[in-house]
Amino acid sequence: MSRLRNSKRKVVGHESDADALRMVMEMMAIDGRSGEEAAIMDYVCGKLTEAGIPPKAIALDDAHRRSPLGGQVGNLILKLPGTIRGPRRMLAAHLDTVPMCVGSRPVRKRGRVVSANKLTGLGADDRSGAAVLLTTALAIVRSRLPHPPLTLLWTVQEEAGLFGARHVRISKLGKPRLAFNFDGGSPAVLKIGATGGYRMTIEIYGVASHAGNRPEEGVSAIAIASLAVVDLVKGGWHGLIIKDGHTGTSNVGVIHGGEATNVVTDRVQIRAEARSHNAKFRGRIVQEIHAAFDRAVAGVRNVAGKAGRVKFDGRLDYESFRLARDEPCVVAATAAIAAEGLEADLAVTNGGLDANWLTAHGIPTVTLGCGQHNIHTAQEELDIGEFHSARRIALRLSTAGESK
Ligand SMILES: [Zn+2]
């Protein structure tokens, strides 16, 4: 097939921009925080079956049963047999949103979509990616566009810790050789790597006592926690960390403890994280956090010389990865972006992505933007032009045949 004929068909087969915009706005209006994706899943499945896609092409896996979060549904997988030769390609996006997007009321504001509900985020992260996949599938099926074997994967529970991608049933994906994840801002930014992250829960146990009558008998867990955080900040191990040519980040993000001012608090729970592209350095950050809490425990004693204690619990959320520039999915995405008149900008991100787990599962996955901005805030927006541009890129990627 000549390239010219191929590209003509793409234009003919394109879903109209107005339809696609309506669809993404409907999708952003559906509540669906991590673990509660049943409603948005129904919406996507409904559109696929309405377009005449046979139910047997659509499958749900059981990722939620293996997720620590539980959840309503597993990942949604659509497999289309190829009509032209070429390696199987996969498009992916996540269906869940962060909790602050519950209640989103998408409205158009010039070239953007925002939430009319000022208290919520919009949910463009990642309904824009989910809509890119959906409109691509509909365009291909309705206009009978020639395409290689395709897998479309809508994951669940990305925001809660990448659980959908982590626990995906790989055997249901049909061994894709090239994979493209849609989640982010500019469609020209290609994320070819992402950092690895480690999450910790730190329990601090002190000794309770009356804060007015016998404060000297207490061991304050809050004092221990505070000393530890000060230690980390002063030592340069909190926030952005740059040491001996290595970089990483850490954050004490949650602190819970205490119920009354007249009690020396004997229990505090802290949740913290450490990230670095370098696994060894990430381990060092975790060690430094442990050491700071151990020192803090030793630094707070009651009148009898008794100290508190600290218990650490942690796990790797996702391993870091870095794709080579000549990895087929990177080459294909760069070309599709160029065909759109843009220049690909290869980037490595500090956030975890579904691509971390997909790549770890043996499916090298590059991540492209689809118009999301100010994500995880009440100022979240969808750039409509970028969203359509991402759709055109996705259509090119899923209708490209055999490459050399
Ligand atoms: Zn996202």
Q: How would you sum up this structure in a few lines?
A:
The protein is α+β, with helices and mostly antiparallel strands and 404 residues long. The chain has helices at 3-12, 17-28, 38-50, 63-66, 124-142, 163-166, 221-234, 279-298, 328-339, 354-360, 384-399; strands at residues 58-60, 76-80, 89-94, 106-109, 112-115, 150-155, 178-182, 189-194, 196-205, 209-210, 239-243, 246-257, 263-264, 267-276, 309-318, 321-322, 345-349, 365-368, 372-373, 381-383. The two termini are 14 Å apart.
Keywords:
Aminopeptidase, 11 helices, 32% helix, alpha+beta, binds zinc ion, Alpha-Beta Plaits, 404 residues, elongated, 2 domains, five-stranded antiparallel β-sheet
CATH class of the largest domain: Alpha Beta
**CATH-derived architecture of the largest domain:** 3-Layer(aba) Sandwich
Instruction: Kindly estimate the percentage of residues that lie in beta strands according to DSSP.
Output: 25-35%
Number of domains: 2
Radius of gyration: 24 Å
Instruction: Tell me the total number of β-strands.
Output: 20
Q: What is the first-to-last residue Cα distance?
A: 14 Å
**Which compounds are bound in this model?**
zinc ion
Mean pLDDT: 93
Helical amount among residues, as a percent range? 25-40%
Report low-confidence residues grouped into runs of 5 or more. Answer: 1-13
- CATH-defined fold name of the largest domain: Aminopeptidase
Query: Which class do the helix and strand fractions yield?
Result: alpha+beta
**Oligomerization state:** single chain
Task: Outline the structure in words.
The chain is built from 11 helices and 20 strands. 48% of the residues are buried. It is elongated, with a radius of gyration of 24 Å. A hairpin with a 7-residue loop joins β19 (372-373) and β20. 32% of the residues lie in helices and 26% in strands. The longest helix has 20 residues, at 279-298. By secondary structure, the chain is of the alpha+beta class. It has helices at residues 3-12, 17-28, 38-50, 63-66, 124-142, 163-166, 221-234, 279-298, 328-339, 354-360, 384-399, and strands at 58-60, 76-80, 89-94, 106-109, 112-115, 150-155, 178-182, 189-194, 196-205, 209-210, 239-243, 246-257, 263-264, 267-276, 309-318, 321-322, 345-349, 365-368, 372-373, 381-383. The structure holds zinc ion (ZN). The site of zinc ion (ZN) has 5 residues, from α5.
